[in-house]
Specification:
Blueprint lengths: L1 E4 L8 E4 L10 E10 L1 H7 L15 E9 L11 E3 L10 H4 L23 E4 L2 H4 L1 E2 L6 H21 L7 E5 L3 H12 L3 E6 L2 H9 L4 E4 L5 H9 L3 E6 L4 H9 L1 E9 L14 H7 L2 E4 L8 H9 L9 E6 L3 H7 L8 E6 L3
Parallel strand pairs: 8-9, 8-11, 9-10, 11-12, 12-13, 14-15
Antiparallel strand pairs: 1-2, 3-4, 3-6, 3-15, 4-5, 5-7
Helix pairs in contact: 4-5
């Protein structure tokens, strides 16, 4: 099979031929129909993720068709179209039994702890516990976008911080997660303000229905959020993983507000100076989140299939496997609006 291999940090991925994977016990092999290119892949590319060792195949936002079934799999058959969360939980431990699959100690993470989906095929462990049937009405390229950014935003909004209709949602970072939070927040009945420093991303957010946008390069973003919302946001989503946006998100909240740290703090941002006086005086709640348990897919897919949210504007670039390198390099600075998805694995 063809795959894009990371052989040196920050070096262009090499397009190589690798042996087709075998289905593990309890797992399947999926022919990849589409795979997103995410900022988390950039963290792997630059060597900021300790789980990645070289050589390695990145890619964690994927969907596809089951082409081989391992021993013990009961739910899936050849030809099934499926989608998977990027955290593949064991399904058998106490945390999984409690529904908390994202903290499973025996988890596998494609593109990080196991070979990923920048390839024509991927072996998926723990298939019965993790895979979800992909409805025919949802295109592969959109499904690939769900695999990390949309699902992470959905879990942050509904599984962690319980966004309610009529609340003000402040989204710090207008990338894939941020735009997903905007679209989902509006579908849930919230009013949404998006903060970024890139005019094109702010214009994009406006075109998708943001109630307000703020350019943090031109003003005090936290104060601007408080002014627009009449005292502060009820919920803030930090969608970049850097100190400036985390601090801004906290300072944008009203009393008793909630903030969810969605962006991955890595490298120099693994430890941040948090304004604990603001947390204390405002009696704020801070949540961390990473991924989404697979059992929460049906609620999200139902929202999409029912026509309550249109996520298709997320996918702005359909690329070939060979186009991954330019997309990864783009994350060195402000990447273009929207999400890039690999749909052509032959070139």
């Amino acid at each position: 099979m063809r795959a894009a291999r990371l052989t040196a940090w920050r070096a262009p991925l090499e397009i190589v031929d690798l042996p087709d994977p075998e289905p593990p016990k309890g797992g399947v092999v999926v022919r990849v129909l589409a795979c997103g290119v995410c900022r988390s892949d950039w963290h792997a590319w630059v060597g900021a993720d300790p789980d990645v060792s070289l050589p390695h195949t990145p890619g964690h936002e994927f969907c596809g068709e089951v082409i081989a079934v391992g021993q013990g799999v009961t739910r899936w058959r050849l030809g099934d179209r499926v989608i998977a969360p990027f955290i593949l939980a064991c399904g058998a431990c106490p945390d999984c039994a409690a529904g908390n699959q994202t903290i499973c100690l025996d988890q596998a993470v494609p593109g990080f702890t196991i070979p990923g989906a920048f390839a024509e095929q991927i072996a998926v462990p723990f298939a019965d516990a993790n895979l979800t049937a992909l409805p025919a009405s949802i295109s592969p390229e959109l499904a690939a976008g769900l695999g990390c950014r949309v699902t992470t935003a959905w879990h942050a909004l509904t599984g962690r911080a319980a966004l309610r209709p009529g609340e003000w949602l402040a989204v710090f970072g207008g990338g894939g997660v941020g735009i997903s939070a905007l679209l989902l927040g509006r579908a849930l009945g919230a009013r949404v303000v998006v903060v970024d420093i890139v005019p094109e991303k702010l214009a994009y957010a406006t075109s998708l229905g943001a109630d307000a946008v703020i350019n943090a390069a031109q003003t005090d973003a936290a104060q601007a959020v408080r002014d627009i919302t009449g005292g502060g946001a009820d919920l803030a989503i930090e969608a970049l993983g850097v100190a400036a946006t985390t601090i801004g998100a906290l300072k944008s909240l009203r009393k008793l507000g909630r903030m969810v740290q969605v962006g991955m703090p890595a490298g120099d941002h693994a430890i941040m100076p948090i304004p604990m006086d603001v947390v204390y005086s405002g009696q704020l709640a801070i949540y961390g989140t990473r991924g989404m348990p697979s059992w929460r897919y049906p609620s999200l897919l139902s929202l999409i299939e029912g026509g309550h949210v249109d996520l298709s504007p997320l996918v702005t670039r359909r690329i070939a496997l060979s186009g991954v390198n330019s997309e990864l390099a783009a994350f060195d600075k402000a990447a273009p609006p929207g999400v890039a998805v690999i749909t052509d694995f032959s070139s």
